[in-house]
Design a protein that fits this description.
The structure holds 2 protein chains of 2 kinds.
Chain A lengths: L8 H4 L2 H9 L6 E5 L2 E5 L5 H10 L7 E9 L7 E9 L4 E9 L5 E3 L8 H12 L2 E3 L30
Parallel strand pairs in A: 2-5, 6-7
Antiparallel strand pairs in A: 1-2, 3-4, 4-5
Chain B lengths: L2 E4 L2 E4 L1 E5 L11 E7 L2 E8 L7 H5 L8 H5 L6 H16 L5 H29 L3 H22 L8 E2 L2 E2 L7 H23 L3 H7 L7 H6 L5 H4 L7 H4 L20 H25 L18 H6 L1 H12 L7 E9 L2 E9 L7 E5 L1 H6 L2 H5 L4 H10 L4 H5 L1
Helix pairs in contact in B: 3-4, 4-5, 4-11, 4-16, 5-6, 6-11
The chains are: A alpha/beta, B alpha+beta.
């Protein structure tokens, strides 16, 4: 993807976006809608605050974190996008929260205080992409061996691995 | 090692490695236990022994080729994973699958659920000492595998669902086989229940063991039967219906006790619901009709057409040499696998190969709750806990 799509007018009217904007305009950097799936892009500095709000706000109640998936856009900067797939069981809603981070400084605040399930997801993202999570109590490799070199899901890591 | 206070004075705890080679860990799982006598103080699951880099491999294959890898994620539910991946790519493409193919998909994924639950029940019962149940469950499971072989040519690595529909038309008489299984299973489930549900030893080994509160279960991302046994009726088939599940009438069994026994009851009730869905699907599947979407360039053309039409031949060549390119974008597709919410996050950059495929494996997430279930209990109950969260290590490690 060379150009990032700009904020979608229709998606911008989505009730979740409206609520977030009303709470804090700065938490919503961009809103995207593709195939009926809502994506809200949040700046890194507002990630943890936005997560707390999404989980606790009675009109949203995104208490279930399904998944954290990172994508490496190498060599484009900002290089990494981290997607949080959220689900609200009481309101039967789903959304995706996205944060962009650069390859020079791949650090994110940990969302474990909000969703304890993030523990293993963040370890997996750290293991396979080398993204650090500040405040994670136990950040070490989960799938690869502890002495493994490199982060396999990065795009500059060859499919067959590094071989001597 | 730490020092703990006991009735007889201070004592040292013991660290015990359970696994990676251990028959009741259902694969290659290692749990590092810290024990005070027989009580588990701390349990730390160590995973990764079966990591095969499926997500990375997907990036080097075309969209159609990657289906074969989704089989290998969860060997007890290959069709559920086929379905999740195919639905995700179809969503990327904006492709509509014919109703007949959707119903066949529903029928076969429910058969997969029965297959998976049968293996779960058999192995779980064997872990707790009831060996005969295992033999019965595997006997019935064999019939389901025979059905898969009849339909797709493979017992386990089916790859039967393809982008835009099914690989091939099911053979004549396959529905008779389905009917035979559906008629046979209810009485067999009664038999398992007769062996276990009011069995005193079974109750002692499972009741009140490994309970988790609904709040903790949600916070830890637990899904599937384990979450429903804690009283949360979250089922993807009801919340976000896919493949025409909204047309089927079935219940979502829940319990509130959230212990191993409740998880056992929920899975047994789910097997009966699956049979209900299969029966309805049999009524909906017409003897004839399309099984593939009308999408030249994505769905391979029929053999006959290739022999007479130039265009069909060109499409065939293009699909198998370079594949097809969905528009740039990303989708997250949830399906209810036998173990819980299975999610496929597929990112396209407009090329014929997926830019990124992320699998949200329910086993991986559910396993994270193991310390919560087992800490404070006995070592022997650890086996019951591992059994009832129903993990497949291939899916945990991917």
């Amino acid at each position: 993807m060379t150009d990032k799509p700009s904020t979608d007018q229709k998606a911008d009217q989505h009730p979740i976006v409206q609520l977030l904007r009303a709470w804090d305009e700065r938490a919503v950097a961009e809103v995207l809608e593709f195939r009926g799936e809502l994506t809200i892009v949040t700046p890194r500095e507002h990630l943890l605050r936005a997560a707390e709000y999404l989980q606790a706000e009675p009109g949203l109640l995104f208490g279930f974190l399904s998944d954290i998936s990172a994508v490496d856009r190498f060599p484009i900067e900002p290089r990494f996008e981290v997607n949080y797939h959220l689900l609200s069981i009481p309101l039967r809603q789903a959304m995706r929260m996205r944060v962009w981070i650069s390859g020079q400084d791949p650090v994110l605040p940990s969302v474990i205080p909000v969703w304890p399930t993030a523990n293993w997801h963040e370890r997996e993202v750290f293991d396979l992409f080398g993204i650090q999570f500040e405040g994670h109590p136990d950040l070490h490799r989960i799938l690869m061996p502890d002495d493994w070199e490199g982060h396999p899901l990065r795009k500059d890591y060859p499919v067959e691995g590094y071989r001597a | 090692m730490t020092t703990v206070e006991t009735a007889a004075g201070p004592a040292q705890t013991m660290v015990l490695n359970m696994g990676p080679q251990h028959p009741s860990t259902h694969g290659v799982l290692r749990v590092v236990l810290e024990l005070d006598g027989e009580t588990v103080i701390k349990a730390r699951p160590e995973i990764g022994y079966l990591h095969t880099g499926i997500e990375k491999s997907c990036e080097a294959l075309t969209y159609s080729q990657a289906i074969t890898l989704t089989d290998r994620i969860d060997y007890l539910a290959p069709l559920s994973n086929n379905l999740g991946y195919c639905l995700a790519v179809e969503k990327l493409l904006g492709l509509e699958v014919p109703k007949r193919a959707q119903y066949i998909r529903v029928l076969l994924t429910e058969m997969t659920r029965l297959n998976s639950h049968l293996v779960w029940l058999g192995t779980h019962a064997m872990d707790l000492g009831a060996t005969s149940v295992m033999l019965y469950c595997f006997r019935e499971r064999e019939e389901i595998l025979k059905l898969f072989e009849m339909v797709s040519g493979q017992r386990m690595m089916t790859s039967y669902f393809r982008i835009g529909g099914l690989a091939l038309e099911p053979p004549p008489g396959w529905l008779d086989r389905v009917r035979w299984i559906v008629d046979m299973l209810p009485s067999r489930i009664e038999e398992y229940e007769a062996l276990l549900t009011r069995n005193r030893i079974w109750l002692m080994r499972t009741q009140g063991i490994g309970a988790i509160s609904p709040e903790d279960a949600i916070a830890l991302g637990v899904s599937g039967p384990s979450l429903r046994a804690a009283g949360v009726a979250y089922d993807v088939r009801k919340f976000f219906p896919y493949s025409s599940y909204e047309e089927f009438d079935f219940d979502v069994p829940t319990r509130t006790e959230s212990d191993c026994y409740a998880r056992y009851l929920v899975r047994l009730a789910e097997m009966r619901e699956s049979l209900k869905i299969v029966r309805q699907a049999m009524g909906k599947i017409t003897p004839e009709g399309p099984i593939k979407a009308d999408a030249p360039g994505i769905v391979p053309p029929q053999r006959e057409k290739m022999k007479t039409e130039m265009e069909a031949l060109i499409y065939h060549f293009k699909i198998f040499t370079e594949g097809f390119s969905p528009p740039a974008g990303e989708v997250y597709q949830r399906v209810e696998s036998p173990r819980g919410e299975s999610g496929y996050f597929v990112v396209s950059d407009g090329s014929p190969k997926p830019y990124r495929v992320k699998v949200r494996a329910p086993s991986f997430v559910n396993l994270q709750a193991l310390p919560k279930l087992s800490e404070g209990g006995l070592v022997a109950d650890m086996i019951a806990c591992i059994g009832t969260i129903d993990i497949v290590l291939g899916e945990v490690d991917r």
